[in-house]
Every structure is written in structure tokens, then in C-alpha cells.
Amino acid sequence: MADVSRGTSQWLQQIADDLAALGLLLRGGFNFGPDEDSPPATGSERAQAVLLVGQAGAAPWPHFRCWQKRTQVSINPLDTWSREVIGEIALRIGARSVSPNDRPFLPFQQWAMRAEGIKPSPLGILMHPQYGLWHAYRGALLLDHEVSIQVPEDVNHLCDTCVGKPCLKACPVNAYSLQGFDYLACLEHVRGPEGQPCRTQGCLDRNACPHGAEYRYPEDVQAYHMAAFASLPSAL
């Protein structure tokens, strides 16, 4: 990485370029306020800013699969790959890399809503105005300095104008409703004999959403995630 001033737009673009080479995206970020109890960055002092790293569609999949064949990691391989590649970028820029599955949990969803101005769908997945439900956050970079980054305002929330709510009508066991997510009903169905379509094609409610269809994960990717959710052997 070229020696440019930390936190500038040129510096951020170089990070975005490094991530793009892995199929990942710089998903925005923000500066913490002086009174916020932010987590530490590389040292013991609290972070001054955070940058969100994620994906749209299945762009990282070929990079992940190539890495998986080389390493043969069997436990949480996608998380392991994400931590590895984002951690390498963090080392290069002097940041701390964190993951959504780190313990104790960090407020990734709140960070994402703040960084991108988006809100949850009825399924709990954040609805993106371009990607729909077909995106994810793979990690974040905690910085010990502020960044020059613009936080979007007045983002169109597609769920507000969706009258039919097809995402709440496709599940055979009505696992999702306006009252929340019935995790046990979903899990039992996916693991059972009637759950074959969910195991091979992904969540039927998620697939029923019409937004961001061009970013929809391929069936093999959806099957991989469903197997991980239900603790089933993956077909990959």
C-alpha cells in the first residue's frame, strides 16, 4: 500500500481496492463520538473510527473456495477465511480486525445501520437499497484515528413501501412473522424430511423478496449457509 495520509479518501480507496481483489467491499464507516464507549483499536485506547467490511452477492465465494481447498479447515471455514484476509489488511494499515462472531459480541448491526443508513427487514436481515437481502458483513477495522468518510442520509428503505410482504408468506412453518423469528420451528423444519427445498435452495422467505435479485446467492452458496445454520453436513 502506498504511503498516503491515514484516513484520507485516497487511503480509503486503496483499502477498498485491496478488499475488491478478494470479492469483498468496504461497506462504509464512521467516526466515534468523543463520549462513545467504543472498543479499543490496536492498543488499549478506544477506537476513533470503524470501517465495515462485507460483501454483495456471492463475489467472495471463488476466493473462499480456493482458500478452503488449500487449507482444509473444517470448523467455521468461512469465518476463518474472513478473519484471515481482513486481518492481513488490518496489519498493513495498522488497524484492529474484528469479526461479527467474536466474543463478546460487538454491535455490528448497529454499526452497519449507522454506516450505511439502512434498516432491518421483517426477516431481521438489513435491507439494502441496491443489494436487497443478498449481502453480509464479514468483519470490521477499528482505527486509532478518524477517517474522512461520508455517512449516507435519507436512504430509501424498500420494506416501507412493500405492501404484500412476500418474505413473510413463503415459509411452510411460518418461522418469520411481524412478532419475530421462531428459531426452533425453522430448525426442526430444515432438519426434517419436508425441509429439503430449504436445505438445497436456501430460505424460502428470503428468496421470496423481489429486491436485489441480481445479487441473489447461487443455490450452492445458499445450501452451504443453510447447512451451517442447521449444523448439517455441507454438500461442498
Can you walk through the features of this model?
The protein is of the alpha+beta class. The chain folds into two domains: 9-156, no CATH class; 162-230, no CATH class. Helices cover 34% and strands 15% of the residues. It contains eight helices and eight strands. The strands form three sheets. It has a four-stranded antiparallel β-sheet, with helices on both faces. A two-stranded antiparallel ribbon has the order 4-5. The relative contact order is 0.15. This is 4Fe-4S ferredoxin-type domain-containing protein. Residues 149-181 form the 4Fe-4S ferredoxin-type domain.
Short description:
The chain is an alpha+beta fold and 236 residues long.
List keywords for this structure.
236 residues, alpha+beta, 34% helix, 4Fe4S_Fe-S-bd
- What is the overall pLDDT average? 94
Please give the radius of gyration in angstroms: 19 Å
Amount of beta strand = 5-15%
Main-sheet strand order equals 1-2-6-3
How many DSSP-defined strands? 8
Q: Kindly, what is the distance between the CA atoms of the first and last residues, rounded to a whole number of angstroms?
A: 35 Å
Q: Order of helices and strands, N to C?
A: HEEHHEHEEEEEHHHH
Outline the biggest β-sheet. 4 strands, antiparallel
Please give the domain count.
2
Topology, please?
Elements (H helix, E strand, L loop, with lengths): L8 H12 L4 E7 L17 E8 L4 H11 L5 H17 L2 E3 L9 H9 L2 E2 L5 E2 L7 E9 L32 E2 L2 E2 L1 H9 L4 H6 L2 H5 L10 H12 L6
Antiparallel strand pairs: 1-2, 2-6, 3-6, 4-5, 7-8
